[in-house]
């Protein structure tokens, strides 16, 4: 470490994270990070230093650090790693409220010319995706990953605090959960197995053992569609409750979403600021959320000039139209059973529909949650398995849950990346997971 003469060197200065620099005003600290940007004006150098927790401007005077170090820093390429010692000064113009007055610095790793320039950032998503390992370093990407991590914690805290037990579902599975058209088949010692589409069926077994459980892990769908909402590998949290009805499922989803948004608003202000997220729509996310049946939705679509025939699944434009009527997530329940999964319970009051719910996020972010009350009757479930052309042998264990003490039960799956996209105001889901997996895209 090169230091100036007037710095007393009774050991290195305290290490400080950029995010907490405002707690060190008046002290000399050491920051370890990377050079995000650099400007110089003759005798002054402005280094934008990022350490993953934030970015701070470090100002170096030639006089204070000497010609040699000044010259080294002046020629330092973007993304070089370095340690900077400096005096923390309050600065009102800075987003972090502080600035660093450099007293010394040491270059740790001089970078080669960095491929991601400002021009590239604005230009080419393909290029950025191929350099995802480096793209992750830019401030908006860092902000999204931090919000994602906060949401994961929020979800876990929510369930852990409500007596749900975390239950890890397997990733290799012998059967389909969400239809056979999106299965990834793998060779399992000579027999076919599938990457899990959903942990739900295992969560149901868990709920019969533990009462209330949630799974949280990666799930896989061989989605052949290229949309801004589909990944082939995404994370899903799936709570499941024994002795629960569709209303319980809807209440739980509503509570979870309110908690997620209020936690992010409370703890991620710097990130939402970097993302230029309009906070007003998020501040409106409070219970109760509007609830509408599919029947009502179809009537409304037709009434408002969006012709829609009863029986089909809602498309993205239909969903967008409906959600625009509200400034909160919309709980859309009781879809025709024909467009939904085999395991859903039929509505005893209306044989045409399933006791299910989709939660549609506001601002056009689409379905973020799908759930239902489960078919708890053995004969009905057997019939559904046949109707959906599923191999009964693979589901015998699941049918056992109805043979040994069946109860009304239900739950839902919350798609993590879609939730992150909504909360962050990110158009495309690919930026809401560190290394997205999509149709024909698996590098890096
Ligand atoms: O609606 P889905 O398919 O429901 C299930 O998998 C149920 N087994 C859940 C349950 O009841 N336990 O998926 C649930 C959520 C969707 O609402 C969406 O947020 C997300 O998972 N999702 C995807 N996210 C990204 N890419 C995809 N291809 C997704 N497919 C579903
Ligand atoms: Mg769904």
Number of helices: 15
Query: Looking at CATH, which topology of the largest domain would you report?
Result: BirA Bifunctional Protein, domain 2
* E-strand count: 20
Proportion of β residues?
25-35%
- Which regions have little confidence, pLDDT < 50, spanning 5+ residues? 2-8
Hetero compounds: 4-amino-1,4-dioxobutan-2-aminium adenosine-5'-monophosphate, magnesium ion
Architecture per CATH nomenclature, i.e. the level-2 architecture of the largest domain: 2-Layer Sandwich
Structural class from helices and strands?
alpha+beta
Q: What is the CATH C level class of the largest domain, in words?
A: Alpha Beta
How helical, in percent, are the residues?
25-40%
Average predicted local confidence, pLDDT: 95
Shape: elongated
Q: Supply the CATH superfamily name of the largest domain.
A: Bira Bifunctional Protein, Domain 2
The radius of gyration is: 26 Å
Distance between the termini: 35 Å
**What is the number of independent domains?**
2
What's the arrangement of strands in the largest beta sheet? 8-12-13-20-19-18-15-14
Largest sheet composition: 8 strands, mixed
Tell me what you see in this structure:
- This protein has 444 residues and is α+β, with helices and mostly antiparallel strands.
- It folds into two domains: 14-109, Nucleic acid-binding proteins (OB fold (Dihydrolipoamide Acetyltransferase, E2P), Beta Barrel), CATH 2.40.50.140; 132-432, BirA Bifunctional Protein, domain 2 (2-Layer Sandwich).
- It has helices at residues 62-65, 67-74, 118-123, 125-130, 132-135, 139-160, 200-210, 246-267, 269-274, 279-283, 294-303, 316-323, 378-387, 396-403, 416-424; strands at 2-3, 14-15, 28-41, 44-50, 55-61, 81-90, 98-109, 165-166, 172-173, 185-188, 191-195, 212-220, 233-242, 291-293, 330-333, 346-347, 350-354, 356-361, 366-373, 409-415.
- The strands form four sheets. It has an eight-stranded mixed beta sheet with strand order 8-12-13-20-19-18-15-14, sandwiched between helices.
- Helix 6 crosses helix 8.
- It starts with a strand and ends in a 20-residue tail after the last helix.
- Mean pLDDT is 95; it is low at 2-8.
- 4-amino-1,4-dioxobutan-2-aminium adenosine-5'-monophosphate binds at residues 177-178, 198, 200, 221, 223, 230-231, 234, 236, 238, 367-372, 411-413, 415, 417-418.
């Amino acid at each position: 470490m090169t230091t100036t003469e007037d710095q007393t060197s009774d050991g290195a200065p305290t290490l400080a994270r950029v995010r907490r620099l405002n707690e060190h005003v008046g002290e000399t600290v050491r920051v370890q990070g990377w050079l995000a940007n650099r400007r110089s004006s003759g005798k002054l150098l402005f280094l934008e230093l990022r350490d993953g927790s934030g970015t701070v401007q470090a100002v170096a005077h030639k006089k204070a650090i000497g010609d040699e170090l000044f010259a080294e820093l002046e020629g330092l390429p973007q993304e070089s790693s370095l340690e900077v010692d400096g005096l923390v000064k309050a600065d009102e113009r800075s987003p972090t409220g502080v600035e660093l007055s450099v007293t010394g610095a040491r270059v740790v790793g001089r970078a080669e010319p960095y491929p991601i320039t400002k021009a590239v950032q604005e230009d080419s998503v393909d290029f950025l995706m191929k350099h995802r390992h480096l793209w992750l370093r830019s401030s908006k990407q860092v902000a999204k990953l931090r919000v994602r991590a906060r949401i994961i914690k929020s979800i876990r805290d929510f369930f852990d605090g409500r007596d749900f037990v975390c239950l890890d579902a397997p990733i290799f599975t012998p059967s389909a959960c969400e239809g056979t058209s999106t299965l990834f088949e793998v060779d399992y010692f000579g027999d076919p197995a599938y990457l899990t589409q959903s942990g739900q069926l295992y969560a149901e077994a868990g709920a019969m053992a533990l009462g209330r459980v949630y799974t949280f892990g990666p799930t896989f769908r061989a989605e052949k569609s290229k949309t801004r909402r589909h990944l082939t590998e995404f994370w899903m949290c799936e709570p499941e409750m024994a002795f629960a009805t569709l209303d319980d499922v809807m209440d739980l989803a509503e509570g979870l979403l309110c908690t997620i948004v209020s936690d992010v608003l409370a703890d991620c202000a710097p990130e939402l600021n970097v993302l230029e997220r309009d906070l007003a729509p998020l501040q409106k996310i409070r219970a109760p959320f509007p609830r509408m049946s599919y029947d009502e939705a179809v009537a409304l679509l037709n009434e408002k000039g969006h012709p829609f025939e009863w029986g089909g699944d809602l498309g993205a434009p239909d969903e967008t139209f409906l959600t625009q009527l509200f400034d909160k997530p919309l709980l859309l329940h009781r879809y025709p059973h024909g467009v939904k999964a085999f395991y859903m319970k039929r509505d005893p009051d209306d044989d045409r529909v399933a006791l299910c719910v989709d939660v549609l996020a506001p601002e056009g972010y689409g379905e973020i949650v799908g759930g239902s009350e489960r078919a708890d009757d053995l004969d009905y479930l057997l019939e559904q398995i046949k109707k959906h052309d599923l191999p009964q042998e693979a589901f015998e264990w699941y049918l056992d849950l109805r043979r040994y003490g069946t109860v009304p039960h239900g739950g839902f799956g919350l798609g993590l990346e879609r939730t992150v996209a909504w909360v962050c105001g990110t158009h495309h889901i690919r930026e809401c997971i560190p290394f997205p997996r999509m149709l024909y895209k698996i590098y890096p």
